[in-house]
């Protein structure tokens, strides 16, 4: 966050569809995220990528510790697959 005393809405450039931009230098500020801008779909995408990363870490760890690597791969698969399942349930709930 910048120390200029303005809130996120005051620092947002309207021409860039809501991305936070520091006006003085025109750079994107990744630390200044408005929680209301995170949609449920974005959350599901983050969960899927997190599961993929856990699975990849498990694959790398399996070279050194086979049991830990296999466990992490299993957890990564479960987390990654829970995201599409949650997406389908969300779409079905929105149709009602």
If you had to describe this structure to a student in words, what would you say it looks like?
The chain is an all-alpha fold and 96 residues long. The chain has two domains: 1-33, no CATH class; 38-95. 58% of the residues lie in helices and 0% in strands. It contains three helices and no strands. The chain has helices spanning 8-11, 40-61, 66-95. The chain is flat, with a radius of gyration of 19 Å. The mean pLDDT is 78.
List keywords for this structure.
about 100 residues; 2 domains; 3 helices; mainly alpha
User: How confident overall, as mean pLDDT?
Assistant: 78
Strand content: under 5%
- Helix count, per DSSP? 3
Number of strands: 0
Structural class: mainly alpha
Approximate helicity band? 55-70%
Low-confidence runs of at least 5 consecutive residues: none
Q: Report the biggest beta sheet as strand number plus sense, adding barrel if it closes.
A: none
State the separation between the terminal residues, measured CA to CA.
40 Å
- Tell me the series of helices and strands, N- to C-terminal: HHH
- Shape designation: flat
Q: What is the number of domains?
A: 2
Radius of gyration, CA atoms, in whole angstroms: 19 Å
